[in-house]
Write a structure and sequence with these properties.
Blueprint (H helix, E strand, L loop, with lengths): L1 H40 L10 E4 L1 H10 L4 E4 L3 H6 L6 E2 L7 H6 L7 E4 L4 H12 L5 E4 L2 H7 L9
Parallel strand pairs: 1-5, 2-3, 2-4, 4-5
Length: 158
């Protein structure tokens, strides 16, 4: 009787494992199909996922520190920038009419770090930078709000 129960239990475990494996494969295929169809549905925006790393404040800070060459862009307004910026950031306001002209003067192959107040304008800037041919983009997730919450230092711009 023990042998029958053990054999039955083992068979049920194997059956359950096979069923989970099949479900995972089906879920993966469905996710890939969904991603593919959503990518083709949004042809008016640039896919920045291949050239962009979205980073936490501590990872953003550490990666900037380790980068020997870098460009750090604050895409907020001048007023926001003057209230406090990450050291060595230059202000190129995403909402200004000369944004495209200013980014054209930057090196497209140099690692480019981008942030705003909360992350919304950074994403818009990343689309423009990727469309302009920038290949190494890093975005501060949550913007300066997350940076401040992590208690990382800011420098007054004035």
């Amino acid at each position: 009787m023990k042998r029958f129960t053990l054999t039955t239990l083992l068979a049920l475990c194997l059956l359950a494992a096979c069923n989970n494996s099949q479900t995972t494969t089906e879920d993966t295929a469905t996710s890939q199909a969904d991603a593919s169809s959503s990518a083709s549905a949004t042809t008016d925006t640039v896919d920045v996922t291949n050239v962009t790393k979205f980073m936490t404040p501590s990872d953003f800070s550490q990666t900037m520190f380790l980068a020997t060459k870098k460009q750090l862009i604050d895409v907020r307004t001048e007023g926001e920038y003057n209230q406090g910026k990450i050291t060595s950031a230059v202000n190129i306001n995403i909402e200004s009419t000369d944004f495209d002209q200013k980014i054209a003067a930057l090196n497209k192959n140099t690692p480019t770090f981008v942030y705003c107040q909360s992350g919304v304008r950074s994403k818009k800037a990343l689309e423009k930078l990727a469309a302009a041919g920038f290949t190494k983009l890093f975005m501060l997730e949550g913007g300066i709000d997350a940076w401040n919450e992590a208690k990382l230092p800011l420098q007054l711009a004035i």
